[in-house]
Amino acid sequence: MQISTVMLQALKDRKASSDYEGRMQAVQAAATSDWQQAMQQKLGKLLSEPSSVRVKLRKLYTLADEAHQNRASVIACKAGCSACCHIQVEINEAEARLIGDATGRKPRQLPPGRHTTPAQQLGKQDTPCTFLVQGKCSIYEHRPFVCREMAVLDVDALTCSFENMYLARMNDPRAVLVPQANMPPLRQAMLKIVQGSRSGAWADIRQFFP
User: Where are the alpha helices (H) located in the chain, listed in sequence order?
Assistant: First the structure.
């Protein structure tokens, strides 16, 4: 990939000026011990209730959106940015069925197992997410967990650019870290929930919805 000198300079400047630590501190300050304890209680109650996988996933999405509010002011992920819609969007079959329910589009039936590879995660996809329409998510209210979890601690999507991801994949020292604030407790809960689904299929959203 040919990377312009302008982009390389922009990445160099970002590496020198990144305020990742300050942004992370803001996230941690918002997630007080009382808030974390309350969230753990909500997750424990959710995991123990005798409801279906679909119901649990919908409730987990609500909790993920609640947790997102602690990061909203210091992340680059906002309306108008669709950078992550052009890379791998890995979802579980249970989530695919939820999207199918909401859109009326039946997801493809895939064999159990993982149908993506780590190398694909940093690579540009041939096509954007199936549900990206005119630069906007057409299923935003029904988007999967991985989209709700995404939180790049930066001012814009520069570090999410294909050029930076290419440099990272090549282990080029000019690549800039994509600073993220993930939600491990919620992700662990999501994994426990989908273990109860009929299939363990994991695939890119484009594989479920070509």
Answer: 5-17, 20-30, 33-48, 53-68, 93-103, 118-121, 145-149, 162-169, 184-194, 205-208
Strand partners of residue 203: 91
Beta-carbon contacts of residue 3 (< 8 Å; ≥ 6 apart): 163, 166, 167
Rounded to whole angstroms, the Cα distance separating 178 from 79 reads 19
Cβ atoms of residues 49 and 77 within 8 Å: no
**Helix or strand run (H / E) with residue 120:** helix 118-121
Q: How far is C-alpha 80 from the chain's CA centre?
A: 16
Please tell me the distance from the alpha carbon of residue 104 to that of residue 116, in angstroms, as a whole number. Answer: 25
Per-residue tokens: 62: 């609500």
**Structure confidence by residue, pLDDT tens digits, 82-94:** 988 988 899 999 9
User: Environment class of residue 56 by beta-carbon count within 10 Å: exposed (0-12), middle (13-18) or buried (19+)?
Assistant: buried
How far, CA to CA in Å, does 198 sit from each of 54, 69, 87, 112, 127? Answer: 11, 32, 27, 9, 29
Q: Is the dihedral of CA 110, 49, 181, 72 positive or negative?
A: positive
- Give the other-Cβ count within 10 Å of 134's Cβ: 6
Place of tokens 């069925």: 97
Task: Tell me the pairing of strands 132-133 and 136-137.
Answer: antiparallel
Q: What residue segments make up the domains of the chain, in order of their start?
A: 5-208
Could you report the per-residue pLDDT of 112-166, keeping only the tens digit for each? Answer: 888 887 655 555 566 899 999 999 999 999 999 999 998 999 999 999 998 998 8
CB of 113 closer than 8 Å to CB of 202:
yes
